[in-house]
Design goal:
There is one protein chain. This protein is α/β, with parallel strands linked by helices. It has a single domain, classed as Metallo-beta-lactamase, Chain A (4-Layer Sandwich), CATH 3.60.15. Helices cover 18% and strands 27% of the residues. It contains 5 helices and 13 strands. Helix 3 links the parallel strand 10 and strand 11. The radius of gyration is 18 Å and the shape is globular.
């Protein structure tokens, strides 16, 4: 049984771009972006990639009264699991979907509705039970549950993205994905946003060596994750949003290199639980 003061993050999907299950990705996992943050009895989910499906089945076994799902953005790898999220179809819970990157041109409900529309998907979004769709301005501070403070910041990604910081019981967990840095020019806004965090999950799609080929794609590197963590005094950096081409062996090597530079660094993998 979880304590009312428990504060941890669990990874259900750690990939970017597209799911990549198979023998090459068994250790780190092949599902796309989805993390669960437990703040005592309250659950916050960030992103609804393909990892959301398995999380939904787990939640349905002991259904909480309320679930909040916050999207960093709505590119397909971050929303593909939404139609398969079992609690959204169950009347005994309330699911609030949140996004801070779409207004004023679009709404979250409108975007998800277009995804769950024939001929792309056979079941329309209006079959969801007890769901609400909430748009907010990125940069806002929200209180999704008593004692839980969620602050937001804009990230550098095509079509916009939103970073999250969750503070609870005097500790903090930050999720910074998807974002692109400028080599040699630290993103001061991100550094200030994550300053002093206990855990920082950071977009590490590429390596510094790969990065020049992918400028303007809206992603960062594991080396930049460490640089941001050092500049901001973050306790634990967790590289995340792995390239689907980066197999287990490749990520093992990167994790060893990262640990040599910043001891304790751990790469995100499905099933990993980290306490703040």
């Amino acid at each position: 049984m979880n304590s009312s003061s428990d504060f941890f993050i669990k990874f259900w999907g750690v990939r970017g771009s597209i799911a990549c299950p198979g023998p090459r990705t068994v250790k780190y996992g092949g599902n796309t972006s989805c993390v669960e943050i437990r703040c005592g009895d309250h659950r916050i989910i960030i992103d609804g990639g393909t990892g959301l499906r398995e999380l939904g089945y787990e939640l349905s076994k002991s259904l909480p009264p309320k679930i909040d799902i916050f999207f960093t953005h709505t590119h397909f790898d971050h929303v593909a699991g939404v139609p398969f999220f079992k609690p959204a179809y169950m009347p005994d819970t309330r699911v609030d979907f949140w996004a801070g990157h779409l207004m004023p041109e679009k709404t979250l409900r409108g975007v998800l509705c277009e995804m769950m529309m024939a001929p792309l998907f056979p079941v329309p979004i209006n079959v969801f039970c007890g769901c609400q769709f909430r748009d907010f301005a990125c940069g806002s501070t929200l209180t999704p549950a008593p004692g839980v403070t969620l602050t937001t910041c804009p990230l550098n990604h095509p079509n916009g993205a939103c970073g999250y910081r969750i503070d609870f019981q005097g500790k903090s967990i930050c999720v910074i994905t998807d974002t692109e840095h400028v080599p040699g020019k630290p993103d001061q806004a991100v550094i200030d946003f994550v300053r002093g965090a206990d855990i920082m999950v950071y977009d590490s799609m590429f390596t510094d060596e790969e990065f020049p080929k992918f400028v303007t794609w809206g992603h960062s590197t594991w080396q930049e994750a460490l640089r941001v963590a050092d500049a901001a005094g973050v306790r634990l950096a967790v590289p995340f949003h792995h390239d689907p081409h980066h197999n287990d062996e490749f990520l093992d090597d990167l994790e060893a290199r990262a640990d040599a530079i910043r001891p304790g660094t751990i790469f995100a993998r499905e099933g990993l639980v980290l306490h703040a």
